Amino acid sequence: MNERNVLGTELEACGTDPMTGFFRDGCCSTGPEDLGSHTICAVVTAEFLEHQRRIGNDLSTPLPAYGFPGLKPGDRWCVTAVNWARAFNDGVAAPVVLASTNEAVLEIVPIEALRQHAVDVPGDASSLQE
């Protein structure tokens, strides 16, 4: 069974450099073992990363033992619904790639909040350079 995104279509990949997803498959797939609901495909910003560090969710420091490279602004990453919502409420939500955001997030975050921060980011950002 294929998972769906918040647009109602097949869930698209979020990012592979670095490799994201609870299952480290590049997608914001989820399941019963994903207690944090890593379902939002965010394009992290410096402001968002700093906010996450302040609330005890350091996404910038590498943790090689867990296969976590540490994030930098511009990386696409499957973030937890609760922490993204907290950033949203604090006015520092990261942009969201709707086609890569799992519909399961809608149990926690309203679609309107996600749409306010929606961006359309190509999988290969080099196409944006001339």
Care to describe what's here?
- This protein has helices spanning 46-54, 81-89, 111-116; strands at residues 40-43, 76-79.
- By secondary structure, the protein is α+β, with helices and mostly antiparallel strands.
- A two-stranded antiparallel ribbon has the order 1-2.
- The protein is globular and about 35 Å long.
- It starts with 39 loop residues before the first strand and ends in a 14-residue tail after the last helix.
- 36% of the residues are buried.
- Mean pLDDT is 91; it is low at 125-130.
What is this entry, summarized?
By secondary structure, this protein is of the alpha+beta class.
Radius of gyration: 14 Å
User: Would you list the SSEs in sequence order as H and E?
Assistant: EHEHH
Residue share in helix: 10-25%
Average pLDDT taken over every residue: 91
Shape: globular
How far is the N terminus from the C terminus?
A: 39 Å
What is the count of β-strands? 2
SSE class: alpha+beta
Main beta sheet, described?
2 strands, antiparallel
Spatial strand arrangement across the major sheet = 1-2
List unreliable stretches of 5+ residues. 125-130
How many helices in DSSP terms? 3
Strand content: 5-15%
What is this structure's SSE topology?
Layout: E1 40-43, H1 46-54, E2 76-79, H2 81-89, H3 111-116
Antiparallel strand pairs: 1-2
Which properties best describe this structure?
130 residues; alpha+beta; two-stranded antiparallel sheet; 18% helix; globular
